[in-house]
Amino acid sequence: MTTQEVANQWAQMCREGKNLDCITELYADNVVSKEMPGVPYGEIVSGKQEVFEKSKQWLENVVEFHASEISDPVVADNHFTSKMAFDVTFKDRGRQQMEEVCVFEVKDGKITNEQFFYTM
């Protein structure tokens, strides 16, 4: 798949709430995920299974999604970016509105790096 095809499929799957399926299908085995400093579930996580578990842990902490928005991806060569916004109630910290910019790198049709920028 091209970077554009990966980006489009990533956005569609995330909009449908298939975040974990997205990791299984679109991520490379050696993917690296980077979060903002201070995140309780790991600032840097390496490996598809570890990224899957990190995402699963985040999702399991969600009580309710009140609203979510994922922008259309913007592609440049082998990278794409998207803005995500959520209104979410978490088990451990209550209701929160979040905005983040996500940057992804694609090699050989798989996501090899992801990084998230937001304010905690």
From TrEMBL:
Gene3D superfamilies: 3.10.450.50. It comes from the Bacteria. Residues 1-118 form the SnoaL-like domain. InterPro entries: NTF2-like_dom_sf, SnoaL_5. This is SnoaL-like domain-containing protein. It comes from Tenacibaculum jejuense. The lineage of its organism: Bacteria, Pseudomonadati, Bacteroidota, Flavobacteriia, Flavobacteriales.
